Amino acid sequence: MRSGTADCLDIILAIILPPLGVFLKFGCNVEFWICLLLTLFGYLPGIIYAVYIITK
User: Fold this and answer.
1) Structural domain boundaries in the chain
2) Which chain regions cross the lipid bilayer (predicted)?
């Protein structure tokens, strides 16, 4: 699988379920827990953080 396709799939997963996209990219690190917390506070902040951290 090409890197561009993997990034696109990660971004789509981050929009549908933000913690899942971050978990698949980074595992159960700090990024995942921050994304989970932001998603619990509000769905939109979770999406913004997930897309930002995946594309960074």
Assistant:
1) 3-55
2) 7-24, 30-54
